[in-house]
Structures are given as C-alpha cells and as structure tokens.
Specification:
- The chain has three helices and seven strands; from the N terminus they run βααββββββα.
- It has helices spanning 14-21, 27-30, 119-143, and strands at residues 2-10, 34-39, 50-57, 60-72, 76-83, 88-97, 100-109.
Length: 146
C-alpha cells in the first residue's frame, strides 16, 4: 500500500481553489502525465459522480475510471478508481488559511502486478510527482488572471 500526503498554500480564495480542483477535467492542466480527463456523469458534482482519465506513468498508458465517494462542497472531495491497472483513491481538502487557501492532497494506491515489484521506488516517485503537481497548481492559480 502506498500513501502520499502533501500540502500547499495558494494565495486564492478557498471557493475558487475548490471549484478548480474539483473540476477533474482541469487535471491535465496541472498534473504531469495526465493526458485527458472527462466527466461521464451529469453535474453537479456529488457522491456518485464519475469521470475517466488517461495518464502516462512510467512510460505506460493508464486509463482509469473514478467515482466520487465523499463530497463536502467547497471543502473536500474524495474519489476512488473503479477500473484501471493501478487502484487508487485520492482526497483533496481545502481550508482557509490567512488570506489564502491550504490544499491537502492524500493519494493512496495499491500496487499490484507490474507495479508491485517496484513498490518502494514507486512510493518515492508518487511522492515526488504529487508534490510537483501541487506546486504546479499553486503557480497556475496564483498567476491566473481574473
């Protein structure tokens, strides 16, 4: 089991940050390796909402389907993969801090098959990747023109 947690403070209001990170179709704009993401359920976002994504990781194309399993508007969204080669659950938590927003990401995955052999290395790679993605999110949202 791999579990990675990272946090970043973004100089933007919590509702704006949450709206951006809970629209999973934005993922390719700030997550490295993410090629596409598309909702497969009708809005608005809530428990049971689904989306598909295509990512490239370790040179492999990974197609996954996700379902939202917990949701608190403007506060937290948690989704879990329902298909794909790498079972994963992620949580994105938004909280006000000073004049900005603290975003905490928790990513949990269950390495199996091809990935199980490299689990310790994979854990370090995921930590580095998630950290870089959230640093990129911070840069993107702080430089975004209103």
């Amino acid at each position: 089991m791999i579990k990675v947690e990272t946090s970043v403070v973004i100089a933007r209001p919590p509702n704006e940050v949450f709206a951006y990170i809970s629209n999973f179709e934005n993922n390719p704009q700030w997550q490295s390796g993410m090629q596409e993401a598309k909702f497969t359920s009708e809005g608005p976002l809530d428990v049971g909402s689904t989306y598909t994504q295509v990512a490239k990781f370790l040179g492999r194309r990974i197609e996954s389907t996700f379902e939202v399993i917990e949701y608190q508007p403007n506060r937290m969204v948690k989704a879990s993969s329902t298909s794909g080669s790498f079972p994963i659950t992620f949580t994105r938590i938004v909280e006000p801090v000073g004049s900005g927003t603290k975003v905490t990401a928790v990513v949990e995955g269950d390495a199996s098959g091809f990935f199980k052999l490299a689990e310790p290395l994979l854990a370090r790679m995921v930590q580095r990747s998630v950290g870089a993605d959230y640093a990129n999110l911070k840069r993107k949202l702080e430089t975004q023109v209103e």
